[in-house]
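As a warm-up, study this chain.
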Amino acid sequence: MVGMLKEIESAAQALGAKLQFVPAESPADLDSAFTSMTTERADGLIVFPSPMLYSQYSRIVPFAADSRIPAMYAAREGVELGGLVSYGVNLPDLSRATAIYLDKILKGAKPAELPIQQPTKFELVVNLKTANSLGLTVGRDFLLIADEVIE
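Now compare it with the structure written out below.
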């Protein structure tokens, strides 16, 4: 997570954008996070990868839509619920890889002897219907590199 923060800070600085970090460690923190974003008039939202935040996409997506805040999610499920864009690991592929690892362990492999693995498939998903509702134009080049475009 520290690496992600540094990368985002660097990108924001290069673009001359001001960042506002709004931590939410539990679902109860989301209401104050939403209030903070509304009060500060956020121009965009990046939802970091987090099991807790993932479980709250059904609250986050409508907040962003109602507040007219373009939002980027770490998983495609945010876009499938009506979010603008996602870029992240393909969760079904990650689950399959985890199951293969678990199978090896259950068959006697020692976890310490198994190679460390990292996700290899990341996907970019964009929701054009949401872009249109926000008055945003998504460029042709962006659409060409997207793994999936929801219309």
